């Protein structure tokens, strides 16, 4: 067990474990080029998803010999995310991940939609992936449930981003399998 | 019967049969230039529509002497599709087809709408067609019905894409005829 | 009566008659430059609006000495229209007209909205007008009513397009007059 | 009383009077550069808002020594406005104003939204202001009320446009004051 | 106590106090480069949020040795904001803040959404942040409550903008902490 695996929250540890499938690569000492990851989060959110993401990224990277550098900005709310992540991506980041927590009122839903459209636009401008990790305030019944969703979604999408950058075949293996972030996976069926 | 026709699921076989109308071309040995098709699918979907598409494309292409190469990426969910298909199209693909399965909650409908707007944008940026094959989780009453819709829609749209690339007159012949993907066709009427 | 006026459906004939107001121009042998019109329609629609448009365009052009060339593509559904009409416009067409028939489900309304936004975008990219002739499946109570709306709207908008290209003063004359396509005109009032 | 003030409808006259505050400028013979104003209106609207706008613009300009030239296009409906106003702005107009009357059905609301998004886009492409004067068919209970809203909104926004072009301090003076177009102003309060 | 702190409304003073945490920087005489802030507000709003913002910006800047220049435009309503703020940003402003008050009718919500999408677009075009300070007319039960929200939101977002320009670590410190503008902060929880 490496240092990076110690004392991780369960939600993070499970994702790190999932990432550690490529023993052969590690044994063969496969060399990955360093990737820069842009992260934007908000003051508005009611929990620190960035910390969860950072732990997942650092642990999984250490396990897999992936080299990662994180650049981060914090903005007031979700509508301030698009231009912030654009700036980071244009400063040389390879991909991005953003964390937000839209409120539960109709006006919040509209704001969230506007932010998401901006994030789409940024990806098409830069040709780089930005994973959007939004947890809506009404997704959970109370703080405890919300916290669980936030941990799970932040950690799993952090791993998804690493896979997109270093190991896209991991995504392909799970195509059409009902993978979910935030809650347990859905059932899948044969076509 | 060619090898490629053997053991195909019924939904695929019916579409391959539809495609095999141009005997003259095949007999005359008409030579088609190879086309590269970009495909993006998701881990989120609950069934492997890519496999259905691949079978349809390969069988119909073999029957019609169409030369096709498939490039594929798998992403977490529908909102990650636009930038992924943009990347493939800009790497030289001639057209694209994307598979997704938006959930049934209002937030999923919004995500699906955002993804679709991104896919529209990608087409206008690249001047290339991307067929969007989305099956909404609430389109079917149960897994069996969903699977049927997914097979049917994935297969029929795969054939549509081939027609757009190799035989646009097949689309023109069916203009205003109530063609549907996912279910049976609608009735049409004289104007 | 010219050949082109013979045996036209009533809906088309009425529009052709409306177009034939500029006898002076015709007598004076005014020479119009040929305009290329891009047309995109769908397999999804339940009636052939292109045929109605073609008849209107050809008859009205013959009457008015307008020179028109039609380029046409057929695509699966309305969301495939924007990139198709963009391609035609960039191949040298002067303006476009597109025909679609969005279904009656909420998801169809969303698709229609996405298509319309794409069509807006195409016009701003090319600086060329594209008239959008969409008949929603729930606009009519039955096939007969739908067919009537489709004929009327397709024919009237075809004439509108010709006016935009050859005779913009016809539009100006009717400014603020409650002109409708698909049904009878609305009443207008003095300001 | 100048010629231009004679026989104007009350709604227009009131706005012209509002504009005539800058006696000093006129006395000092301040010279304004000619500005070209792009106007697009529709056949669909049920009243001629362009005429109201023209009267307001001409009267207020005459009073204030503002030099204005109007370029105008009429299009079928609101969705045809964006590309038309773009064309006029790119032909050298300094700003634009557009008049439309969206219907009362849900599909009309969607069309209006699409038109508005296009008009936003045009402004960002050209860096020029386009005031959108839309009167929704369901804003008034009957033709008389609608006509009143249309006159009021068309006239007041025409004056707003002149202020933006020739006298931006007039807008600044009224910042946060509850100014409305179409109806009476709202109350304002101290912050 | 500096001059700039005297006689400020409570809402502004509280934010100025929050900003005054960096005594060390001030003592060390840290030199900040002058930043130009673009501000756009509307006649439509029922209170003068610009004044609140100006007071906050000037007081907090004086306290912190931040050098700020404000450029301002007033427009009729929220839909006129995007092009106005774009113009100011392209004239050399470093960031922007905009104030608006969408009405309570459905059509107002749509207008607000269109304005917000335009503001998103402007940020992506210029790569510069624009904080959107919209207070919806139905957020408060009466004028008094509305005024309180407007003061609070205008002042807090003005401080946010200063932090983004001069002291981004202040935002980072509050990441995921439930910061709100307009009302009291939300509770936050451990992840």
Question: What descriptors fit this protein?
Answer:
globular; 48% helix; alpha/beta; disordered N terminus; 191 residues; homopentamer; four-stranded parallel sheet; 14% strand; 7 helices
Structural features, described:
Five copies of one chain form a homopentamer. By secondary structure, chain A is α/β, with parallel strands linked by helices. Chain A has helices at 10-19, 23-27, 49-64, 81-90, 106-126, 143-166, 169-173; strands at residues 35-42, 68-75, 95-100, 130-134. Chain A has a four-stranded parallel β-sheet with strand order 2-1-3-4, with helices on both faces. Mean pLDDT of chain A is 91; it is low at 1-6. The interface between A and B is large, with 37 and 45 residues.
Q: Distance N terminus to C terminus of chain A?
A: 40 Å
**Strands side by side in the biggest sheet of chain A:** 2-1-3-4
The secondary-structure class of chain A comes to alpha/beta
Would you identify the regions of chain A where 5 or more consecutive residues have pLDDT less than 50? 1-6
Q: Main beta sheet of chain A: strand number and arrangement?
A: 4 strands, parallel
State the shape of chain A: globular
Helix and strand element order of chain A:
HHEHEHEHEHH
What is the beta-strand fraction of chain A?
A: 5-15%
Please provide the count of β strands of chain A.
4
- Overall mean pLDDT of chain A: 91
* Quaternary: homopentamer
Main interface by residue count: A-B, 37 and 45 residues
Level of helix content of chain A? Answer: 40-55%
Tell me the Rg of chain A in angstroms: 17 Å
Continuous helix count of chain A: 7
């Amino acid at each position: 067990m490496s240092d990076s695996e110690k004392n991780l929250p369960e939600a993070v540890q499970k994702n790190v474990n999932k990432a550690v499938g490529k023993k052969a690569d590690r044994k063969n000492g496969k060399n990955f080029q360093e990737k820069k990851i842009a992260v934007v989060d908000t003051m508005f959110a009611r929990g620190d998803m960035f910390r969860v993401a950072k732990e997942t990224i650092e642990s999984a990277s250490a396990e897999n010999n992936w080299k990662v550098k994180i650049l981060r900005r914090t903005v007031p709310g979700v509508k301030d995310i698009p231009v912030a992540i654009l700036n980071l991506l244009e400063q040389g980041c390879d991909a991005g991940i953003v964390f937000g927590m839209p409120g539960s009122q109709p006006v919040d839903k509209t704001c969230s939609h506007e932010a998401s459209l901006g994030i789409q636009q940024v990806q098409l401008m830069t040709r780089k992936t930005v994973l959007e990790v939004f947890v809506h305030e009404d997704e959970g019944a109370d703080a405890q449930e919300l916290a669980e969703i936030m941990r799970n979604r932040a950690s799993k999408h952090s791993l998804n981003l690493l896979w997109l950058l270093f190991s896209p075949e991991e995504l392909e293996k799970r195509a059409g399998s009902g993978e979910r972030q935030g809650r347990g996976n859905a059932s899948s069926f044969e076509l």
